[in-house]
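Hi everyone,

Forwarding the result from last night's run.
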Amino acid sequence: MAQKRKTEFNLPYFGIDESGKYPTIYNLKGDYGVVIQINNPVLQYSADPSAYDGSHQLYVNITKILGEGYVIQKQDVLTKKIYNKADSTEYLQQKYDEHFNGREYTDLTTYLVVTRKGKRGSFYSYNKKNYNDFEQNIGKLEDLLKRNSLSPKILTRNEIDLYVKRILSMNFSTNNVSLNNMRATDVEIQMGDKAVRSIPLVNIDTIDLPEKVSTHIERNDKDTLKGFPIDTMGFLYNVPLYQTIIYNQIIDIPAQNMTQRKLELKRKRHSGIPDPANLMCVEDIDNLLVDVARENQMLVYCHFNILVCAPLETIQQTCNYIESSLFQQSIIPNKNAYNQMELFRTAMPCNTVELADYDLFLTTADAALCFFFKEALSKDEVSGFQIRFTDRQGIPVAIDPADLPMQTNRINNRNKFVLGPSGSGKSFFMNALIEQYCMYNKSDKPKWLMDVVIVDTGHSYSGLCSYYGGKYITYSEEKPITMNPFAISESEYNIEKKDFLKTLISLLWKGADGTVNQVESDVISQAISSYYSNFFGKPLFVDITEEEEREILKEAEAEAAQLDYTEEAKKSLDLDGLLAEAQALTNSFEGSSNEKLTYYEQQYQRLYDEQLQGTIEWLKDAQADDLYITKLTEARIKNKEEFKRKNVVELNFNSFYEFALYKIPEIKEQERIPFDIDEFRFVLKKFYKGGEFQAILNEEADNSMFTESFVVFEIDSIKEHKTLFPIVTLIIMDVFIQKMRFRTEQRKALIIEEAWKAIASPLMAGYILYLYKTVRKFWGEAIVVTQELGDIIGNAVVKDSIINNSDTTMLLDQSKFKDNFDEIAKLLAINAHERKKILTINQLDNHENRGRFKEVYIRRGATGEVYGVEVALEQYLIYTTEKPEKTAVECYSNFYGSYRAGIDNFVKDLKRSGLKLPQFFNKVNSMRRPIYEEGKAEILQLVS
């Protein structure tokens, strides 16, 4: 048996020259070129036809910049790779990596090879002018690619070497590349256990192409995807069972005048023999020449070839899929491609010279470039603030939802608006977002620190809060959420704080749905100003003035003098003493008995009158003293009360209430304006000491809230309370603002779930606007989350204060809102292209080999992308909002002392049990304790 002849595969290159401005590769025919790695300009699923048109025009411009004598070779390399990432330091993110590690995905790399054809002849001759022109054109091209955000990178010598080796081995997936023997047949090239087939798109003998071509095609396989623009070669993403695909696109720009003359000569030859075929040929040439003349189009020779590398046993199935996909677009690939080795060699960079004439067809550049691949896959955004979701094929991709879009002016603020109907995965998505916001808070070397305050009405974040060891505050009558918003320093008192307090007082008085007129608003504002002016003015309290003391003494003496003290004085006389003293005086008197009796009576009366009068005077003075002390005490008490009434001693709602009841009537009288002070006093009384809600605005908040990085306010118990719900929500927002000012080194996020409805009233529109504009100054963001369509449509406060100040919109599956989506799109200013993207949420056939996931549309600025929210089991167990599932997880976390230990053991026991997750939840809840190994009997019982 004759042995097959073995030949050496010779590379078609002289080498690579690095003496010029760019590393330049030279082939054996004297052509030279550079290899540029680029990103395609149109992101997959961009839904914007104009983006494809723009990409097409870009390459038209490139052909015109380069001009005659150049070959443009574009190669899009699709490779199957295995996801493997293990550099996360945080526990949940490590589990996230483990969940995806080992998953196969498609990677896309694009190269643009620009070749300057050398002069054909027996010997190679170097033309310095041509080379200088070549370098200038490459410089222009590089600048054009940069301006169009294609991120060009000109390959170095080593990178070109590796690129060539990867093509020769058809291996773009591993770091190390090894070459294998090749065995060329009429249908493929075999390399060990894999085969490479070249599928040229055009057979020049038949030219089986559609009569009209466009820059893109449209999907119509589903109602939700009707009219959705995709790349003409977009089916390449879905090719099954391949390892590497190289879509080789070649545009050869010939001398235009000479080519036109050849066409005209060909036209004459065909017109000389008037049969139907020749007449059609003449018509085609005429149309082509008209387009060239009228539209200033360039004539080019082009070649399109799909190189497929797949295992030997699947190569036929892979190629069948490609050919059938091309057929659906009215493209019948060349069935006579027996020159497989020649076609393979022409896929090498700067080696298009080996293309035979029968592999090239002539057309206009505009038509040929419609077959260029224009799409790019999602890539990690380069930023210091990365949050990971998945791309549409189910592989983690990092995006920056805040800083990078701010730096590139894509957005002007970090605020976000989230809309998703019940069951769309809204809470799941928010948990995934917040988990990553906070993932470095416990790290020794954090990339960032984040403070998160959540106002929730459904216990959606209890698991995440417990995992991070945050503060979970639940409102109850026994322990209400309290705050003293009046207690501020003089430096904190500003127009924004004053407006907040005015909003708060108006809310207390009129309720969330009420309104205050201009007069009422100005009176409250003036009362607040006077309140703080008085306190910060530190008025001196004088106990009593000297003048007041003299007046009180005078009043006491006058009042004492008017009293009759005779009877009281008589009761206190010493009659025995008076008798004895009168007798002593009489004993020393000389006279008759009658005279002595008379003398005795006279002395006794005198002594009696003197003692009586003295006692009366004493009693009068004592009474005057008592009255003086009493009046002085009363005056001091009155002065103190009056001082307190007119002056602020401490800052809280109680003192403001007292001050307002004094100040407002004064303002009312001075300005002669109407103000219902009685209604004001009565309505606000419930928040004053002794009232039903006395604690809410008078007791200081828990100071730990200002230092804790993760705080959840759960106020589900009062969401139907028309009085408390808006007040407590407003208080929490004020807590966040204070925290925002206090915590200067942390990023901040205020997340308001359905509680936002409590404050979405005209009365509080100004304050919401203030919050949204202020949060940016303090490295923060406000996120409003809702599921009720009726709450946002027609609500002016939502549009003017929330949506208009939220440059990032996040939408979950909107299929439940499809009948009202026109209104939503109008409210959110969503254009037609973005609507098409939104309608693809959860509609693609991308569920194979993936876990449970939901998709979300994230619009930053004017454009958005759709991402997948798919997480590890450990993350799901922390995020879950299902009561039975939360109960089972808490059983484990309580038993093992921490959420992390509980989750680890939960997953370990789940795997050991062999049960499905729902069954395992039921088993744990029925046992009311963790399921752990207690011998084989327990395991057998679980499995059974």
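The chain has 31 helices and 27 strands.

Cheers,
N.
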